[in-house]
Amino acid sequence: MSWLAAPSELRERGVVGMNRRNLEFVARHNRRTAYPLVDNKLLTKRLAAKAGIPMPELILDLSHQFEVEAVPARLNELDEFVIKPAQGSGGRGILVIAGREGGRFVKSNGERVNIQQIKRLLTNIISGLYSLGGRTDSAIVESLAKTHEMFASMSVDGVPDIRVIVFQGYPVMAMLRLGTHASDGKANLHQGAIGVGLDIRTGTSVGAVQHNRAITRHPDNGAHLDDIGIPDWRGLLRLASRCFDVTGLGYLGCDIVIDANAGPLLLEMNARPGLAIQIANGSGLDSRLEAVLAREAFAPGVDERVAFALDGLAGAVG
What we know:
Blueprint: H1 7-12, H2 18-29, H3 35-39, H4 41-51, E1 58-62, H5 71-75, E2 81-85, E3 95-101, E4 104-107, E5 112-113, H6 115-127, E6 139-142, E7 161-167, E8 170-178, E9 194-198, E10 205-210, E11 213-215, H7 233-247, E12 251-259, E13 263-270, H8 277-281, H9 286-293, H10 302-312, H11 314-317
Antiparallel strand pairs: 1-6, 2-3, 2-6, 3-4, 4-5, 7-8, 7-12, 8-9, 9-10, 10-11, 12-13
């Protein structure tokens, strides 16, 4: 499936476009008052902690410029960490530090940065350079998730994550996102990351795309992308499904990483998740969303919702 197909063909294949997503699913099923819970990653962390949903450990959060001067002493105690803007989007302003070399920090892609560059990044984040609408922001420093052994052969410059679309608490579509040299290790497809479609029933790969083109191997390391199976798939879907209960958002995207030691960890949530996941899956969202709408009652228990994703969506998936 390609975005270059005629609109009529895309509709026939059940592809949901941006206008329909915004009007029929985001606007109708997401309360505006709940948006800050996912638009601000600090609020997301506090909400998740209260609900017992595991996330990477929060090390520091900075909201004022004067706090930046005290950062070197704290960061010099760490070998690995991630810096990100609380209200950023699209992967902008994120810095992943994977090691130390002398007095410099080593990024996940091997580049070196010094403490002055990090302080400059923190200053830019707080000033709102990367935030939605340019508003003043907070900088988050959190622990770096460890790459699960199954991803070791296909991981480039970063830890892969899994995007799950959740509708009324039901996981309906998922993809594995793999960083590349082109994306600077980030998992954002528009920056050059790879999207691997995952069968929502089994967690196994169904196809892969980069820049909306079908691929079968990772362009940087040659890893095969057609025989991937995500471990503890049911547990991962349970985590994604629980995000509905704690936010009340009927249509959301959940980004989850599988940590080598801690298992599935929630990275963040998105009230307006992108639509390229349909291309990665070679399948439109329409039939899956309609299958949930056809349920007699929305949002029963988490286990029932996950069971529906594993078994009840069979006809909608095809």
